[in-house]
Amino acid sequence: MPYSRLFVFMVTSVLALVVLIIPWYFLSPYLAAPVISVAGQLMDSTFLWVEGYERHETVGTLLTTLNVAVNQNGRLVVGQLSPEVNYRTFGYGLVLFWALLIASRPKGMWFKMALGTLILVPSQVFSMCFRWLREALLTSGAEVVRQAGVHRWVLEIIAYFDQLGFLIITPLMPILLWLILDRAFINRLWMEMVMAGAAEAGDKKKSADS
Q: How far is CA 197 from CA 51, 91, 123, 210, in A?
């Protein structure tokens, strides 16, 4: 019974993930708005070389005072660096969270889905900020780094947290949040597995005695 419940949960999660990715894709411009806004304001208030930000649907553009040489009609023209980050590259964790809730069907599912959507915003802001920093300072050359006045060890930290946000926080945070919001499902599944294990051990003992 617990193993069949677990199998159904896993299959339902995968199916829900596949189905929900479609509405999430079309809703993502609205979901991206608060993330880009908070991340942009945070970057603007933290770094002197940031002038602001712009949003075009799911793409956030960081406006900076950092000068870069741009090839324009065969001539090198100096322009301002404006790194772009697409919300969809890390916002998919929200779909995973929704899928897990639908598969486990907890009490107050719709409320928990809305609550979790809000709770995940800070982790998405974290990922966007460090991806902006990566695009601005790790891929634009030594001259840009010099203009920003950033030390080598800071670049290492940026690279680390960018990978942390993209590879670990994006897929792991939705799972951890689901575990917190639906502990009843985990506890019930765990108790069923323990009881099934005890019953199986009892059957083996009876067989051995006979």
A: 61, 39, 38, 20
Residue 156 token pair? 């290492």
| Angstrom distance (rounded) from CA 13 to CA 113 | 14
> What's the number of CA atoms in the CB half-sphere (13 Å) around residue 13?
14
Query: Structure tokens of 33?
Result: 């708005």
Tokens 């790790």 correspond to what residue?
Answer: 138
**Mean pLDDT for all residues in the chain:** 87
**CA–CA distance, 199 with 197 (Å, rounded to integer):** 5
* Order of strands across the sheet that contains 50-56: 50-56, 59-64, 84-86
**Which of the listed ranges 121-135, 138-152, 196-210 does the model predict with the highest average pLDDT?**
121-135
Q: What is the pLDDT of residue 165?
A: 92
pTM beyond cutoff 0.70: yes
pLDDT digits (tens, 9 = 90+) for 95-138: 999 999 999 888 899 999 999 999 999 999 999 999 999 999 99
Residue 60's nearest CA partner among 80, 37, 90 is 37
SS3 of 51, please? strand
List Cα–Cα distances, 17 to 97, 109, 151, 165, 189, in angstroms: 9, 16, 42, 21, 21
Residue 113 phi/psi, 5-degree rounding, is -65, -45
